[in-house]
Design goal:
single chain; 4 helices; WW_dom; isomerase; PPIase_Pin1; EC 5.2.1.8; Ubiquitin Ligase Nedd4, Chain: W; rotamase; 25% helix
């Protein structure tokens, strides 16, 4: 249970840990509001720093990341939805109105930042996919730096799956379009 200015959460909000999902979540004791996504008014930079310091796995693989089948891969992604996505809403925006073209332009900017980071991690313009996903992804996996855990063939949308399985460990895809929106995918394992 964590609250206060260090977390970057608005007044009254706390970070708690779900035993059933082995994930952090956000809770407001006065209102009994509970959610997976950070509440409005959160300072994303402070929250990201706090989560990295206190809620990272530090070498311990949580249950949701454990590859028990062996024929699965683990990947992270950054999703930018558009108004024609199958569900044009996210934790960041309750109603997404950007066009598909605007979503593609946004993802291109993110890809440039990731490329800059991979070429030189000290580049001030560069950011890792995980860093960007935490604040920019329209998927709820943003709270885990975009990490989707392990999945096998048939678990994801066809276009996403094909792109993810083609990647080598550590590699980031180009732009991948699915019914959910436009993605950048990084194979983790």
């Amino acid at each position: 249970m964590s609250s206060g200015p260090e977390t970057g959460l608005p007044e009254g909000w706390e970070i708690r840990h779900s035993n059933s999902k082995n994930l952090p979540y956000y809770f407001h004791p006065a209102t009994k509001d509970s959610r997976w996504e950070p509440p409005a008014g959160t300072d994303p930079d402070r929250l990201k720093a706090y989560m990295a310091k206190y809620h990272s796995s530090k070498g311990i693989t949580p249950a949701y990341l454990d590859n028990q089948g062996g024929d699965k891969i683990r990947a992270a992604h950054l999703l930018v939805k558009h108004r024609d996505s199958r569900r044009p809403a996210s934790w960041r925006e309750p109603r997404i109105t950007r066009s598909k073209e605007e979503a593609i332009e946004a993802i291109k900017v993110h890809l440039e930042q990731i490329t800059a980071y991979e070429n030189d991690s000290s580049d001030p313009n560069g950011k890792s996919l995980s860093e960007l996903a935490t604040t920019e992804s329209d998927c709820s996996s943003a709270r885990k730096g975009g990490d989707l855990g392990f999945f096998g063939r048939g678990d994801m949308q066809k276009e996403f799956e094909e792109a993810a399985f083609r990647l080598n460990k550590g590699e980031v895809s180009g732009i991948v379009e699915t019914a959910s929106g436009v993605h950048l995918i990084q194979r983790l394992e």
